Amino acid sequence: MQIATVKESLTKLPVGAEVHVRGWVRTFRSNRFIALNDGSTVANLQCVVNFEELPEDLLKRINTGACISVQGDLVSSQGQGQNVEIQVKKLEILGDSDADEYPLQPKKHSLEFLREIAHLRMRTATMSAVMRIRHNATFAIHKYFHDRGFYNLHTPIITGSDAEGAGEMFRVTTLDPINPPTTDDGKVDYKEDFFEKETNLTVSGQLEAELGAMGLSKVYTFGPTFRAENSNTSRHLAEFWMIEPEVAFADLDDNMDLSEDFLKFVIQYILDNCVEDLEILDKRLADEEKGKPQAERSEQGLIERLKFVVENNFVRLSYTEAIEILRNSKPNKKGKFKYKIEGWGADLQSEHERFLVEKHFKSPVILFDYPANIKAFYMRLNEDEKTVRAMDVLFPGIGEIVGGSQREERYDVLKGKMEKMGIAEEDLWWYLDTRKFGTCVHSGFGLGFERLVQFVTGMGNIRDVIPFPRTPGRAEF
Ligand code: 4AD
Ligand code: MG
């Protein structure tokens, strides 16, 4: 007798093997079959039980959601889509589940409903497939960088600086937030705070990753980041995971090459290693598309979309060229964008980004050389003194998936920029120091992990690709 997962039972073990499998009852029918799932794979293990031989009190406890243990022989199956099933000789209930109370009935539930029961939704076929893909993407990311000589750097979660200078931070304090102690002039007295200074949850590990690159040459972070922006969209979370490579001696072209190669590698890894999960998500997406009006339906299925990205070059285009295209475009029937193009210098709305990617080029696009005044202080100023060496990678169905830049490595220029943007030197003296002692050209970018998982799983809402989403008003579990 061998303890095995559902996946091992279905794919690795020979017919005739005696196995012991544990999992949760997905469905049961005809008084003979139990569909058992343990999350190891999409498929259920069909358990063939002679219900008539089971004692009445045990029989009553075989309910959807119950945790059970079965022992028996693997035999060839006549059932559709499975080669083997288990002929059960011994069945035990490990954990009961009251059929009337269990929220996951054996029927299709909406994703909105599943979000309300996030503590149980990983038992569904869709959510468990998403979570297995999320894991595989994590693994592929570490593999990509490790194989190319990058070192993983753990950057702090609690920090005294605002890496993006956008003021969207969550405070971390041990003081009474309502009535904090104050100094004589009425300001918060941080002497009594744990860190003796104002601190927040990090919005990005970039500044510390730059310090790492200035000693280790090639580093990357992969950690949680936090944004207190009140964006209730399908692509924003208050807590999300970001991957931030930072490379010494690399310019913006190297950075664009790295982002494209990296994204293609991770997507190819998922295509190669998550076939069953992709297939059921492809089917889910196709069903969803069927419900949409013809004009809004996507031309490609999920797997086709992924292959397209891997097999084609991303379009590279300057911000200035993009503005020209947008100005000369007629996106909807009335020939208008919902948000007008304000002209050169304005930030692009996601509507504009998605027009470029989904309608105009029908391909991922890397936009570069943005106006300096709509981008962060640390980006390298171009010779025209109007634009910076910034880049955003835009994906179909997602919009911005990566944001990055070549960094301003010149001490005087950086210091001048910080002054102009009102960033205090005493907060970032350590960052300026790297420009004082052995500065060099360097670049990096940040990939929003959940946006990548959205793309590879075809899930429309970012809340459905992270186990426990943090959004405005929601942090229960
Ligand atoms: O464009 P962002 O703000 O860039 C940075 O933070 C840089 N420090 C990165 C770097 O150069 N090292 O964020 C990077 C990416 C975005 O392109 C997006 O994919 C994701 O992070 N992102 C979010 N994902 C989910 N929810 C949010 N609220 C996000 N904000 C940004
Ligand atoms: Mg950005």
From TrEMBL:
Where it sits in the cell: the answer is: Cytoplasm
User: Where the protein is mainly located, per its record?
Assistant: cytoplasm
Q: Name one GO cellular component term.
A: cytoplasm
Q: Which UniProt keywords apply?
A: Aminoacyl-tRNA synthetase, ATP-binding, Cytoplasm, Ligase, Nucleotide-binding, Protein biosynthesis
Entry keyword Transmembrane: no
Q: Where are the transmembrane segments?
A: none
Record-listed E.C. numbers? 6.1.1.22
Q: Which residues form the Aminoacyl-transfer RNA synthetases class-II family profile domain?
A: 131-467
Q: What are the GO BP annotations of this UniProt entry?
A: asparaginyl-tRNA aminoacylation
Q: Which PROSITE patterns match?
A: AA_TRNA_LIGASE_II (PS50862)
Domain of life per record: Bacteria
The signal peptide annotation in the UniProt record is: none
CDD domains linked to this entry: AsxRS_core (cd00776), EcAsnRS_like_N (cd04318)
| UniProt xrefs under Pfam families | tRNA-synt_2, tRNA_anti-codon
Reactions performed catalytically: tRNA(Asn) + L-asparagine + ATP = L-asparaginyl-tRNA(Asn) + AMP + diphosphate + H(+)
Query: Which GO molecular function terms does the record list?
Result: asparagine-tRNA ligase activity; ATP binding; nucleic acid binding
Q: Which family does it belong to?
A: Belongs to the class-II aminoacyl-tRNA synthetase family.
Q: Sorted alphabetically, which HAMAP family does this protein's record hold? A: Asn_tRNA_synth
NCBIfam families, alphabetically? Answer: asnS, PRK03932.1
* Assembly and interaction partners: Homodimer.
- Name of the protein this chain belongs to: Asparagine--tRNA ligase
The scientific name of the source species is Phaeocystidibacter luteus
Q: Which gene encodes it?
A: asnS
